[in-house]
């Protein structure tokens, strides 16, 4: 080393003797850290390895070490007559400081990332890591200056009170964030990964350091909140149950609807959203009486992986359709005065319904007054695409005529392909209406569908006034059943043949049995 230094000094002089060695060391260091930087950006499968953590830790102090090393090497090869002792002392001090930073970062990476996090599975908040580094580096720096370089640090300590006051006044907001961050982490109301509401903001906690807490909203926006602002506001942690989030939905409902009816409607809408958990089940509360409505509060849970906005959007849509079907209104907070009455469309509506009733085989032979009676009392139910209209095995006495839209029929709740699709003018549920038997299939709306619903009460009123209609209905249904059996037999290419007399006998027998069931169900006997 001494020989190469002497030889270099004899060949080079002036600034060349200082700059050239410094540049060589600096270029070599830059090449090394460029390689380190590319390794970090590669994001390979080993990015969580201890080697990856060490490379990331020494990146910043490593650049400082290369710069100070280049400066110190340049002083070593420079002309001694042109280099003062203060330059050499300063170079040694900077080199020692940079080396201590590199060693310190390696030690912190080993202690925190390897020993605590990997061996003991203990997560240390970043604010405590940064605070610990500042304290340790400060103490080591003062000790190093006092023992190694014999620098008197007493003036630094004696003037610390004035310095602290000046720093406190100049950086009161920064220090407020620091101490607020410490208080938040001492008794943490949230942890990394939790969904929280604070100060009108909602998002997942992605980072919390000495200055601020970072949230990521459902729209993927980054929200950075200073710690002293968080400490002053109410914090709502939405992640009360591991892996689950909860959300609240508030809606105002008309006073005309009973609380029990509203609860059934709202819970039914929740059950139509597959992302909402069944356990814990959604809950509905009456929240208060307002000027125009009763406020209801819905709390529901869903898995952490789902978007809160998406789940809320689906629930809002289901609630609208369910309330529309049940005739429950969401009142406007205004008063409306209609000066010009709307055109009466009752006659047009009745005509359309009569046309649909004429396509129902067991109703089209009714006399016109009876069909008008039914058309006037049909109820309109709207269904959204994907909603279940009737469930296989459930009880119910409603009969459905499809006004607009399309439905799919499933014989098995788990089936993915329907056995039939029904469109405008077609119908289902007649046996449940006339005999009260359980549903034999599940029916779901394939698109937005308007159904005309005929209830048991209306049919019972019609049959009581016209008892002979029961005979007509049973005869039509028995004939339809016989035709279906004949079509099935012909499709299966059976060799059995039934003459007209036998077919008529079987139809008459089925009609009598069906008539007896209708009379018993409607208590016409």
UniProtKB/TrEMBL annotation:
Subcellular location, record wording: Endomembrane system
Domain Cyclic nucleotide-binding: 362-480
GO CC annotation: endomembrane system; membrane
InterPro entries tied to this protein: cNMP-bd_CS, cNMP-bd_dom, cNMP-bd_dom_sf, LSM_dom_sf, MS_channel_C, MscS_archaea/bacteria_type, MscS_beta-dom_sf, MscS_channel_2nd
One Gene Ontology term of the molecular function aspect: mechanosensitive monoatomic ion channel activity
UniProt xrefs under SUPFAM superfamilies: cAMP-binding domain-like, Mechanosensitive channel protein MscS (YggB), transmembrane region, Sm-like ribonucleoproteins
Entry protein name: Small-conductance mechanosensitive channel
Organism: Candidatus Ozemobacter sibiricus
